[in-house]
Amino acid sequence: MKLNIEQSKLAEILETAYLAISSKPTDPILGNILLIANEDGIVSATGTNLNLTIHTTTTANVETSGQVALPAKLLTDTINNVRGEITLEVENQACIITHNSGKCRLIGGKPDEFPTLPKGENPIEVNLSAKKLQAALEGTLYCTNGDETKLVLTGVNFKIDTNKWQAASTNGHKLALVTGILDSEYSDPIDFTVPGKSLSELNKILSQSADTSVCNILLSNKTIEFSLPNTKVISRLLEGEYPKINSLIPRTFEYEFTLERKGFESALKRVSYLAERKQKVVKILWELEATQATLYTEATDIGDAVDSVLMKPATSHSENISIGLNIDYLLEGLKHISTDEIVVRCNKPTQPVIICPMGGLLNQLYLVMPVEIKQGFENKSTPSKTTTAEKTPEALETTETTVVAELEEAINNTQTSQTESNGETSEVETSTAEAKASNKSKPSSRTRAKKEAASV
């Protein structure tokens, strides 16, 4: 094999293929990138870790066709540090790279040992705007579960029903959902879950694609292929049924508030410094007459903080409502919303809170579970005009038990009921059942919190 190619072209396809290379490959050949040059002037680079494969192409002046498997990191670092036109000449398993100031020789593996691209049979084809797919990934990936004992929750679940599609993810405490409309209709519902790690690498590629690019998706039984101009991303699918999270999202809301996103985010960051390190809880009092949201935090050994932001309420209620929320979860959700304004919807202080962007490319929502705060917080809170120095420590007092994991329990119940109806027990469901059995002997966090509040 012999070819001449611009450094920028070769560096681009190598960096893209390198996204699929594992830092600790299970087989030495998986630490290589496969380069193939065809007589028609097409050069491809392929990287894989067996779960994810990335294949990308470019053009070059090919004198002799051929293929070679070269160490991925060494090859990428070498090409990134040269400039101008490069000549690659391969003899056996050695590749001589000649550039404008010198040359080097790399020893690679056997290209015939490199895994072939996986191909699915009778794939279902779906076409989706690359920018919409990227927006869906940006709006869901941050809610995937990092705990691989619940493997199906480490991915993003996609559903297609006629011409409607959605992408969803959850880790039990927070949930993200993005929906949109397709140009084509499908007679049968489609449901599949893609590993979050694969989609993270795909998202990097999508961020570099043109605004008008279309992603051609080929869905098979065990694999999925995302095809973009000059690049293919192939991933294995996650097995197992994803929880029916749509049933966990409230359909009606008693309260609705519109806020300026950056102002709300800034206020959260300011009060976060005075929040307990372990709990990171902010108590938000939604004041309807004052049309503002007042934020309270306290750290026992440091102090407390109060801040406020303007908001527009849309509710028939006249009573204020206070909700405790995890600051990190709130900031994470706001970080993945790109619009200037957001809408916060809620019901009772112990029920899920929904945050949606005002507008945007797709319909998007973020669900976060509240933190249980002491009953009567609204009455004990001083008006927002009171300064922090005038506030008493009791005004910020909350119960020690904070996290209310109703969403996680609902997901576990969904998985358990599926197991009972199917007469089967998966690895994820078994771990869920064991966890529930171990917790029967001790009171729930909500029960303990109520007892403590009653005693106070």
> What is the CATH architecture descriptor of the largest domain?
Roll
The CATH class of the largest domain turns out to be: Alpha Beta
Distance between the termini: 80 Å
Number of strands: 23
Radius of gyration: 27 Å
CATH topology of the largest domain: DNA Polymerase III, Chain A, domain 2
Strand order of the largest sheet: 11-12-23-22-21-16-19-18-17-20
**Count of individual domains:** 4
Give a structural overview.
This protein is of the alpha+beta class and 456 residues long. It folds into 4 domains: 2-113, DNA Polymerase III, Chain A, domain 2, CATH 3.10.150; 124-240, DNA Polymerase III, Chain A, domain 2; 248-406, DNA Polymerase III, Chain A, domain 2 (Roll), CATH 3.10.150; 413-455, no CATH class. 23% of the residues lie in helices and 38% in strands. It is built from 10 helices and 23 strands. The chain has helices spanning 7-18, 72-80, 130-138, 196-206, 261-272, 327-335, 377-380, 406-422, 427-439, 445-455; strands at residues 2-6, 32-37, 42-48, 52-59, 61-64, 66-71, 85-91, 94-99, 102-107, 124-129, 155-170, 174-195, 214-219, 223-228, 231-236, 255-260, 281-287, 292-299, 303-313, 321-326, 341-346, 353-357, 363-368. Helix 8 crosses helix 9. The longest helix has 17 residues, at 406-422. The radius of gyration is 27 Å and the shape is elongated. The relative contact order is 0.10. This is DNA polymerase III beta subunit. It holds the Pfam family DNA_pol3_beta_2.
